[in-house]
Write a structure and sequence with these properties.
CATH superfamily: MFS general substrate transporter like domains
CATH topology: Growth Hormone, Chain: A
CATH class: Mainly Alpha
Shape: globular
Number of helices: 15
Number of strands: 0
Radius of gyration: 19 Å
Helix content: over 70%
CATH architecture: Up-down Bundle
Distance between the termini: 22 Å
Oligomer: single chain
Strand content: under 5%
Length: 374
């Protein structure tokens, strides 16, 4: 949880820096959002590869080095003299994020035993805490006078990485033999690649919505509700904090009633939540809709990773790398396009577009087979 929280703090720092990049380098929303794209494009390519490696050899050092690399990339982006330099820095941070997640999620699956939904929910809560803290800390410090302090905060990744290394030392060392045995074990269900691909589409669409909120909610809050950008950062942090409760409840419900029910009902709630947010005209209306949006977006987060592992029981590391990779990648790829929609038609229209995508997500979730984890 600590390692996940620290890594995702630096991952969430990139969209939190978008308003700073826009103001400092005089960018459009689409151009500013390209920082999110840069942070995810290399992660997109490398994260499934890291998952494949996690199935075959023990490399717990990937989690610690990934955390430090993510922090270093963010520190360099904060101090970058030009936007192009910042893009290179956040791309390096994305490589660190890619290195961390597959090995870490595989470790959680091993450590959780039969209660994988609950275990993954605790792991996901750690990441959500990091995401929730990033806007509150990064937005106020991302300015000409305070950015050295923000860069220095990245040094906190070093003690976090040391603590993480102590936990990762409990992982089995002989990974390759274990993976080959799992692939040939007749008692394990066969890998359901078709269901896994369908789940991947659903994960990608949800990722688009989560990244859209991480990137644009503070700006939407400030522009459409006529408040400060700091107030928008607080709203984003509250959305992510409420999402912590959703993640925990989602994991517990999945252990008892199955992952599919959690995913379906979460996706059903997303459409109305986005529609209500897009039509909110007062701060009170916007605040009231945040809990519904938070539960819809975050309750299925850890559950979907666990379901992906149950679809590929013979390739758990690969499943972790691909599902987490999609959760990072697709949203990052969509961020500049959503920014373009917002530039041309307004942030209000972009949010209503997300609401229109929700029924498609609910339909995909309904088609998923409900394979229980053991």
């Amino acid at each position: 949880m600590l390692g996940h929280g620290a890594t995702d703090f630096y991952q969430a720092a990139v969209p939190a820096l978008v308003p700073y990049f826009i103001a400092t380098f005089s960018l459009t929303l689409a151009r500013g959002a390209s920082a999110v794209f840069a942070a995810t494009i290399l992660s997109a390519v490398l994260q499934p590869y890291f998952g494949w490696l996690a199935d075959r050899r023990a490399m717990p050092w990937l989690t610690t080095s990934g955390l430090i690399l993510a922090a270093g990339g963010v520190a360099a982006a904060v101090m970058a003299p030009t936007f192009n330099v910042a893009l290179v820095a956040v791309a390096i941070a994305g490589i660190g994020v890619a290195a961390f997640h597959p090995e870490a999620t595989r470790a959680v699956s091993l450590f959780s035993g039969a209660r994988k939904g609950t275990g993954m929910s605790f792991f996901t809560i750690g990441g959500n805490i990091g995401f929730a803290l990033a806007p509150i800390i990064v937005v106020p410090l991302a300015n000409a006078t305070s950015r050295p302090i923000l860069a220095a905060l990245c040094l906190l990744s070093i003690p976090c990485a040391w603590i993480l290394s102590r936990a990762m030392g409990a992982l089995p060392r002989e990974r390759g033999h274990t993976e080959r045995s799992a692939a040939l074990d007749a008692t394990l269900p066969h890998d359901a690649w078709g269901a896994f691909a369908l789940l991947g589409v659903a994960i990608g669409m949800r990722s688009m919505m989560v990244v859209a909120m991480n990137t644009f909610l503070p700006t939407y809050w400030a522009r459409n509700l006529h408040v400060s950008l700091q107030s928008g950062a607080v709203a984003l942090s509250m959305l992510l904090a409420i999402g912590l409760v959703g993640v925990f409840i989602g994991g517990r419900v999945a252990d008892r009633f199955g992952a599919k029910r959690v995913i379906v009902w979460s996706f059903v709630s997303i459409g109305p939540a986005f529609w209500l947010l897009g039509n909110a005209h007062t701060l009170l209306q916007a605040w009231l809709v945040l809990p519904l949006l938070a539960f819809g977006l975050f309750a299925p987060g850890g559950v979907m990773v666990v379901l992906g592992q149950t679809y590929l029981p013979r390739h758990v590391g690969t499943a972790s790398g691909v599902t987490v990779g999609l959760a990072v990648t697709f949203g990052g790829l969509a961020a500049p396009l959503l920014g373009r929609v917002a530039d041309v038609n307004g942030l209000h229209v972009m949010i209503l577009l997300l609401a229109a995508c929700a029924p498609v997500m609910a339909g995909l979730a309904w088609l998923l087979p409900d394979r229980r984890h053991e």
